[in-house]
Amino acid sequence: MSLSSSFSPPHIIGGRSSPPVYCPGFTLPSLFLNPAGTSSHLRLKHASSIVPSMTRRPDFHTNGSAAADDDDEDDDIQYEELDADPFLPERWDVLGLGQAMVDFSGMVDDEFLEKLGLEKGTRKLVNHEERGRVLRAMDGCSYKAAAGGSLSNSLVALARLGSTSIGGSPLSVAMTGSVGSDPLGGFYRAKLRRANLHFLSPPIKDGTTGTVIVLTSSDAHRTMLAYQGTSSTVNYDSCLASAVCNTKILVVEGYLFELPDTIKTITKACEEAHRCGALVAVTASDVSCIERHYDDFWEIVGNYADIVFANSDEARAFCHFSSKESPISATRYLSHFVPFASVTDGPRGSYIGVKGEAVYIPPSPCVPVDTCGAGDAYASGILFGILRGVSDLKGIGTLAARVASTVVGQQGTRLRVQDAVELAESFTFHLDSSTFRSDIGSDHISSF
What we know:
By secondary structure, the protein is an alpha/beta fold. The chain is 35% helix and 17% strand. The strands form 2 sheets. The chain has a 9-stranded mixed β-sheet with strand order 7-6-2-10-11-12-13-14-15, sandwiched between helices. A 6-stranded mixed β-sheet has the order 1-5-3-8-9-4. Strand 6 (173-176), helix 7 and strand 7 (198-199) form a beta-alpha-beta unit. Helix 15 (393-408) packs antiparallel against helix 16. Mean pLDDT is 80; it is low at 1-7, 12-70, 72-80 and 434-448.
């Protein structure tokens, strides 16, 4: 029985006034313990000149230049064409479909933003000329280059959490998207490979790799300027089709809904993933993105999503709730439509929703340094728990909260290798000791 045949999304049924009746036969362990299965019970629902002509690697850190923002031991990245990886697995644990963007990030003052006519704290798309104007203005400033993107942050963290045989076999993680054959495309692919994340899509000949300029002011507000370049074209080609057929979980990045005609690619990928018995996860990405593409989001979430990742504002946007509604209400409501709803609420904690009920996950204590990337890290913890076969909501959420707090307590958005290993070891120890299961046992999960 398809959930989509049982009820309709909020914008159709009129919001909270007509709550849907959810399928009472669903048991959570089937979602968690067999993500690769094909049995029917899983299918409950179905610088301007710097960028184009860069010839030096961006790992130097002087005024007006870029430093590679990564904790890899070897940052000496050259821009020659990468050879095909001869050691690709036959099947992926997680495959991400998202935007491949190189981030340029730097600290600026309010005067810098005013001079360029930029509204602080906003995110906007820019063309080639606008990007060049901003990068020229940054000449003399220090900034960093990174293989960026919300989805890649989550996948790198997941690959590092699953890099050893702790709790099971090492995880195989891959990403597909669109990069050009330019130097930045080579930089992006090489950086991900060094993080044990395989970027499967071949570069587009004569294409230009997308970039995001992240300008952070002294009050921690981030102003983002995105140049999509080749990243605005994501086609359902033979590479993507083959990878989707051989994955346990497909993760679709919400920012893709901003791109023209990408909904066709997303739909085909989700249909094929379900046909092959994979789970489908969708990241909300941004409130404004949901509001602009609400119907497209619900077309995918309502018909294909098994897992949704959102923060409290995004969850409310999905549900057409006002800002006065509590995160737990949004989580409960969203979980009527999606088997597993993950909703973060900043320093106040998070919620996991299943079949109209929500479990509160308290925040993991830390001294905050940089909150950027917290939600991405949290998602990686959820995916890691699912892939390790955990059926306890509290246990999965607690791990995810610890991963997020680790990233919040450092500078930068990427979970460091050593931190990932320690988190995986700690999680496995507690899982074996059954300490997580003291709050919610599997019998309670089945009762949702």
